[in-house]
Amino acid sequence: MKKRKLVVVGNGMAGIRTLEELLKLDRDLYDITVFGAEPYTNYNRILLSPVLTGEQTVQDIILNDADWYRKNGITLHLNATVTRINRARREVVADDGTIAKYDRLLLATGSNPFILPVPGNDLKRVITFRDINDVNLMIAAASKLKRAVVIGGGLLGLEAANGLAARGMEVSVVHLGETLLNRQLDKSAATLLQKDLERRGMRFLMNRQTECIVGDEEGAVQAIRFTDGSECKTDLVVMAVGIRPNTDLAQKAGIHTERGITVNDTLQTYDPSIYAVGECVSHRGMAYGLVAPLFEQAKVAANHLAFHGIGRYSGSALSTKLKVTGIDVFSAGDFIGNAGTQSITLANAMAGIYKKLVIKDDKLIGACLYGDTADSAWYLRLIREGKSVSRQRGQLMFGEGAESQS
Amino acid sequence: MPSLTGTGPGAQPRILSSICCYCGTGCGVKIHTDGNQVLKVSGDERHPSSLGKLCSKGMALGATVRRDGSRILSAQWRESKDEPRRNIALDDACDIAAAKLADVIGTHGPDSIGFYLSGQLLTEDYAVFNKLARALVGTNNIDTNSRLCMSSAVSGYKLTLGADAPPACYDDLDHADTVMIAGSNMAYAHPVLFRRLEAAKERRPDMKIIVVDPRRTDTCDIADIHLAITPGSDVALFHAMLNVMARGGLVDLDYIDRHTEGYAQVETRIRAFTPELAQELCGVSAADIVQCARWFGNAQAALSLYTMGLNQSSSGTAKNSALIHLHLATGQIGKKGAGPFSLTGQPNAMGGREAGGMATLLPGHRDPNDTQHRAEVARLWKVDAVPDKPGHTAIDMFDAVLDGRVKVLWVAATNPAQSMPDQAKVRAALNAAEFVIVQEAFANTETLAYADLVLPAATWPEKSGTVTNSERRISRVRAAIEAPGDARPDWQLVCGIARRLALRIAPEKTRLFDYQDEAEIFAEHVRFTAGRDLDYSALDYATLDKDGPQQWPYKGPRSAPVRLYADGVFATANGRARFMDVDYVPVAERVSTGYPLRLTTGRMRDQWHTMSRSGLVPALTRHAEEPFIYLHPNDMLRHNIQDDAFVKVETRRGHIVLAAMADENLNPGHAWLPMHWGSAFMAGNGVNALANSARDPISQQPELKHSAAGISVQNYAWQATAWIRGYIPSLRQRLSKWLAVFPYAVLMPSAVGGEGLRMRFASPEKPDTATLTELVRDLQLDDAGLTFDDPALGITRRIQYCGARVDAFLLAGDTRGHEALLQWADTHVLPADPGQLLQGRARAAARARTVCSCENVSDTAIDAGITAGHLLEGLQATLKCGTSCGSCLPEIKRMIQRHNTQEIRV
């Protein structure tokens, strides 16, 4: 029997993870073709931060080398951006002219960094933090420039700032809100975090909105100006103000998209032969920018691509970690709480630890940890399992180990 | 050693001889001072009563001298009851008091004024107070807290021997060969005398010691027989002992015949009191009673030592009399080593009575009901007359305040809102009074809450005067330093108001209160003793300064220790002592199904009265750290009470909640409660909310010693403990309000970590978040270094620390880390993981408890010493425990004994 054809658009973590899951289920079902816009084989994007700080190299973070593709009979097109899907003919066309036919198409196009729509956002040395190329730009800049401004006090922004600081730059972080990581941490934890990062030499410009980026006569960045009229001189600007699911390709092909490519619980798009996973999708109204949901999606999508037809993806409890060495941050679920929830907090100022657990109807629904995240996996499990924690409530704060000792 | 700072011009380092201000032993102290502050207090070897010894409380006197918020530094006044008091000038305060007194006397007559004074006052203070009441105001409504303390001893002595005079002296402790200690835990209440008796027993092991006490106290450690009698059955016991002696030919019929009267009736009555009957009434074996009677009857010298167990009773006079009978029947009185010796509770209850400072007394042991006595007193005071209408004794006084007969109550140097029985009623009276004057040195007494006018009093060691101790010895109390702020000696405050009052109501009497100094008051006072049983009219300050303390009667320069009645001539009209035909009457309140426990009260070793002074010394709080009630282990089992569980103790008058502790030294069915804790230290109205105001018909002394009580476990769902370092007075000011918030609450001065406060709270339901937040704020734990909050469950754990030093903590809702935290606070040893403490599971070794307060030696250290093979001498040599005041010796000996018993069992 002639093999079916599977085309994967996107050589990132979500797409390749889905292939790995698929190959575990059935090695011989498909002829597989992968398109990657970057020149690298699949690498761990999460670990770009340690590469930036110098703690790891690009080689260290490669997940699947060329050999892996070869051994699995996968046709890999690097530096090839798919520009069109011809759904009628069931084929895709890449910008290098490659055309690939498919029986099943998997879209794993990821996301794009959001670029602030301000004057000067196209100046030289205004970059984002998304891929190895960005990291290389930053490393090069750090070796010859003095000052950097990172716009955005979220996870990526802080990791970029930390990396640039580690490479000797004077780094200022510009943040629109009052507290850092305002989607991942509550105010207490964020305050601790800011103090810790300040101790490492970072400067924070909070409650600042960027008005424009000022360039010099050579068209390179010189300073950043805020709406309050103040300015901050800089040699480099890193924009880390968020990501947007990359839906261009799907939209052009007439596939239904909302914020991302709309999929059902089997990760199938509105076109039954097209699936989508990763940061590019919108599932039950949610777009995920974190790795754990992608892996869960990959597992389900692979199952359906293999025609097993079991497995449903019903969404993920979110959890985050900040990858800044020596600073442990974790949050998951609803860690802010409201009138219908109860909070347990622990703080140890001397040790720089803050923990908050949010409970609703005797179930753990959220956690925010700072300084000690040893129990984050356990909390995440409890949040996902949604079982009553009333029995272990007294020891909940002290971790899984504490339970058995009490 | 001169101090480098704070030494004013002319201030000289010096050492002054004075007297300890606590109990009636009247120990001599040497106050070492630089002129401005007390550097040290030590025992005065030259004082004949104490020979250089002091107890743990006396040793710590120096630490009670504080100039902080613990003192009242200026007069205070409130214009109406719903206003807070504000500081005013002392002169204005005297004007206000005089105007109010004059006004009320004018409208309602002199008997609408009441004075409630204290055995803490000096004889000179008493003399002027008494003169004010009787010679100027014109009322006999002047009574003192001696009514709660010694009045049964007084009536016992007067009825049998003819005068309010303990016939023995401390020297007799060295010479007695049978000693009966009845109703006294002298190891705690009179430790210096106990030490002396202990030493005598060691020298002469043949000495027989009988202790009569419902509870096995530390005093029993030197007892040959402990008679754990049913509370209140003393008369039956003493009658039975007399019965045994009479039947066994151990009475001295010749002495009875020559020196006494009334024996025949008593002899008839006691025939019914066989040892077998007494066994039933008293709950002790007939054989033991017979043995004790034989020891007493066969003794060369038999001495009885007794105090509150006999006095604080609804049959106190009968108990005193029945005990004195034993001495009269055997002639064991007036000779070396013999006599019925009442140990006085307060430092100057004796002197107060000498000055006539009670409703039932006039100066010089005179009787206000006696026309001739009144005339003598009026003549000596140079007034026309003194009032003849009987005055109110303590309980009556407060009843009269409650029903409006007494409108103005002037309280001095005592704390009735803690010390009086039936607190609910006493407090209602204080609330009902039209005007309450409180003359006080310490800012922490419960009674201050009811004061309309506060007069700032000087106190030890700022005052000068005299006191008389249990062996009738008059000693000089000397001022070593200036009183702080506007504080003045009590007699000066009295004179200041008396002169102003006289100007308003009887200007010719103004001169009655023109005293130069204490010496002049004393000189006036001694004239009242001339020709009386206590005659010390030949005594003056110069003699006391030259020859030292003197016993009365004082006939001339220094003589041997004085015993009264050596010649068999008693202070009665016909010179014969009297046997009083008293029957045995049980306690006023019988136990019942609802109130099944016999609750008795007593003292703790290191505290004094309502703790206004002793509570200022952190070290003295170590021996017993928080309020508790002792129950017999069987009763705890029956009521399903765990050790340290909260129990509600209830009598017909009120209830309190405290922690229960098992004590095998009690008889089953008995409970025991220390007397010290008032509403300043615990929720509710304090321990005397429970106490019975039923009283002796003659002495009018209330039965503070016994109530029928019910007990129930309180299973409080929510508990909290807290500790904070800092100055006790200011912390108490800020945190006392929390005593009113929870059904169980205690707030105790603490020596943990130096000086601070400990708190413990409990309630059936968790407090709301706002309450917890406020508690956290009051403990200054808002920004605590370690916090754990689960407000939905009422859980808050907070620890404020810096390095190894803890400054405060609160464990609310889950208090398991409590002991470990106190240990940390006390030792400054940072736990390996302070965060562990928040989990309440760092199991610290049980925290050491201080046994020796003077040398700060813990039970664990002593246990280790014993295990290492040390006996008492070895422990004293290596640890120094029990080498200073010796108050802890009974406990240390018991620990050694317990250890040895365990070894034998092993």
Could you explain how this protein is built, in words?
The complex is a heterodimer of chains A (406) and B (906). Chain A is an alpha/beta fold and 406 residues long. In chain A, 25% of the residues lie in helices and 28% in strands. Chain A has eleven helices and 25 strands. Chain A has a five-stranded parallel beta sheet with strand order 3-2-1-7-19. A five-stranded parallel beta sheet of chain A has the order 9-16-10-11-12, covered by helices on one side. Chain A has a five-stranded antiparallel beta sheet with strand order 21-22-25-24-23. In chain B, 32% of the residues lie in helices and 19% in strands. Chain B contains 30 helices and 34 strands. A seven-stranded mixed beta sheet of chain B has the order 5-4-16-15-14-6-7, sandwiched between helices. In chain B, strand 1 (14-19) and strand 2 form a beta hairpin. Chain B is globular. The termini of chain B are far apart. Classes of the chains: A alpha/beta (406), B alpha/beta (906). Strand 23 of chain A pairs antiparallel with strand 30 of chain B. Chain A: It holds the Pfam family Rubredoxin_C.
Brief summary:
The complex is a heterodimer of chains A (406) and B (906). Chain A is α/β, with parallel strands linked by helices.
Q: Report strand % of chain B.
A: 15-25%
Q: Number of folding domains of chain B?
A: 5
Shape category of chain A: globular
> How many discrete structural domains of chain A?
3
Mean pLDDT of chain B: 93
Radius of gyration of chain A, CA atoms, in whole angstroms: 23 Å
Strand order of the largest sheet of chain A: 3-2-1-7-19
**What name goes with the CATH superfamily of the largest domain in chain A?**
FAD/NAD(P)-binding domain
How would you name the oligomeric state of the polypeptide chains in this document? Answer: heterodimer
Sequence of strands across the biggest β-sheet of chain B: 5-4-16-15-14-6-7
Number of strands of chain B: 34
Radius of gyration of chain B: 27 Å
Profile the largest sheet of chain A.
5 strands, parallel
- Just give the CATH class of the largest domain in chain A: Alpha Beta
- The first-to-last residue Cα distance of chain B is 54 Å
Count all strands of chain A and give the number: 25
Biggest pleated-sheet summary of chain B: 7 strands, mixed
User: What is the mean predicted local confidence, pLDDT of chain A?
Assistant: 92
